[in-house]
Amino acid sequence: MTTELISLVVNGEAHQVLVKPNWTLLDVLRDELNLTGTKRGCDTGCCGACTVIVDGKTVNSCLMLAMKADGRNILTIEGLARGDKLHPIQEAFIEKGALQCGFCTPGMVLSAKALLDENPSPTEEDIKTAIAGNLCRCTGYIQIIEAIQAAARNLAGSASRR
Ligand code: FES
Ligand code: FES
Fold first, then answer.
1. Residues 48 and 72 placed together within one structural domain of the fold
2. How far apart are the CA of 26 and the centre of ligand 1, in A?
3. Dist CA 48 CA 9 (whole Å)
4. In whole angstroms, what is the distance from residue 110 CA to residue 38 CA?
5. What residue numbers bound the domain in which 97 lies?
């Protein structure tokens, strides 16, 4: 099988990776770059556990061929915290008890991040729409929605204090 060298920026760091035509972005992130915060759930685009942000939009990384990620800018869950300081969305998930096993959490948090970047004051319906592709089998969605609402308030508060 032929391979191709792709260049991508992940969490602000430039990488070059030799990929096979059948590899997905999820394969590259987890198996080549060792960024295992992005989870492999269904591997068929149904669960959202593999959600990452590509050029500002959420993508199921299990559905994106690695070669299509050439030249793209990717944010994974590992890119959110600043050293020991968690991102306000991550803090809100903890504060609201919005996770149990945590398997869906990286994808949920990144869907929330993409939403709040685009729409800092989402309605409950906006939040439900944003996380519609992210399945959670154990926490349920009430605390997750509350966490995203709390993160929106906290982010708005810190922006107005600047
Ligand atoms: S692992 Fe990609 S959507 Fe489930
Ligand atoms: S916290 Fe377990 S699947 Fe969501």
1. yes
2. 9
3. 22
4. 10
5. 88-161
Cβ pair 50, 107 in contact under 8 A? yes
| Reduced DSSP (H G I as helix, E B as strand, rest coil) percent helix, strand, coil of the chain, to 5 | 40, 20, 45
Domains: count for the chain = 2
How far, in Å, CA of 107 to CA of 137, rounded? Answer: 13
What is the best residue among 46, 47, 94, 105 to mutate for testing ligand 2's pocket, by most ligand atoms within 8 Å of CB?
Answer: 105
Q: Is 138 in the pocket of ligand 2 (CB under 6 A)?
A: yes
Is the model's pTM score more than 0.85?
yes
Strands 57-60 and 73-75: unpaired
Instruction: Give Cβ neighbours of residue 161 (< 8 Å, ≥ 6 apart).
Output: none
List the CATH number of the domain containing 137: 1.10.150.120
Question: For 45-89, how does the pLDDT look when each residue is reduced to its tens digit (9 = 90+)?
Answer: 999 999 999 999 999 999 999 999 999 999 999 999 999 999 999
